[in-house]
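User: Here's a structure from my thesis project, written as structure tokens. My advisor, Dr. K., wants to see whether a designed sequence matches the one we expressed. Can you design one independently, without my sequence as a hint?
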């Protein structure tokens, strides 16, 4: 399945507008991923190349929404040993292809990203926010979608992840039972607010940190840093005007 998967009938079945055909393909993929075999990073990247093109060729809003949700739900039954590698292949693929997605297809890929942010939080919550698992996940987020210096990641992807980060966490931890380590989860955003390459990226991270929903957890995130970095942005505004020429 992982060999030239994008060329197989499996891809067409997943992108099908026929629900039974699509669900049969998803069941096969779910069984494949939850088998006892191990997966190499290359196999997962090939698989995600195929899944990306499934989404690319999916037509009509309802099938697109269903496919985006179903692909994100593939994450939920995975073993803890496969959770990070599978997500790494997803983010690597999305970040690589993001700038090539045309305007007509962007909405469905933004939905896919939103669903994956939600699914990752759901997975971590179901594992009681295991410290090692959370640390590995946040490290991945800091390395790819919310990286401060990775030039291969488009700012458009950073902006979208920032836009949905708190919202999807709020949906997953709706009961606010006190188990969710919100301050730790906001760490990638704080790093981006501090170290983002451009003023716009830092501003968008700052807006995320100022989200009023964070107060629902009884937490105010990084307010001192926000004030200090806001002053730094004013002082360095002239420099940021030329940041694009360094790319």
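Assistant: Designed independently from the structure alone:
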């Amino acid at each position: 399945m992982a060999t030239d998967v994008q060329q197989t009938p499996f891809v067409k079945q997943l992108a099908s507008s026929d629900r039974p055909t699509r669900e049969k393909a998803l069941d096969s993929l779910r069984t494949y991923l939850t088998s006892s075999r191990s997966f190499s990073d290359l196999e997962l990247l090939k698989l995600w190349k195929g899944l990306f093109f499934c989404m690319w060729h999916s037509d009509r809003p309802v099938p697109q929404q269903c496919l985006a949700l179903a692909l994100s739900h593939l994450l939920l039954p995975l073993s803890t040993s496969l959770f990070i590698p599978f997500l790494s292949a997803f983010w690597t693929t999305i970040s690589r292809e993001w700038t090539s997605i045309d305007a007509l297809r962007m909405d469905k890929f933004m939905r896919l990203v939103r669903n994956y942010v939600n699914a990752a939080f759901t997975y971590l919550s179901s594992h009681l926010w295991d410290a090692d698992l959370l640390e590995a996940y946040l490290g991945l987020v800091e390395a790819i979608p919310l990286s401060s210096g990775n030039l291969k990641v488009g700012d458009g992807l950073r902006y979208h992840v920032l836009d949905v980060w708190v919202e999807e966490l709020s949906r997953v931890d709706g009961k606010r039972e006190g188990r969710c380590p919100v301050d730790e989860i906001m760490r990638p955003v704080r790093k981006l607010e501090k170290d983002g390459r451009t003023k716009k990226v830092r501003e968008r991270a700052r807006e995320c940190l100022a989200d009023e929903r964070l107060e629902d957890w009884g937490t105010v995130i990084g307010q001192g840093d926000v004030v200090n970095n806001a002053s730094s942005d004013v002082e360095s505004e002239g420099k940021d005007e030329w940041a694009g020429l360094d790319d």
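When you compare it with your expressed construct, this may help: The radius of gyration is 19 Å.
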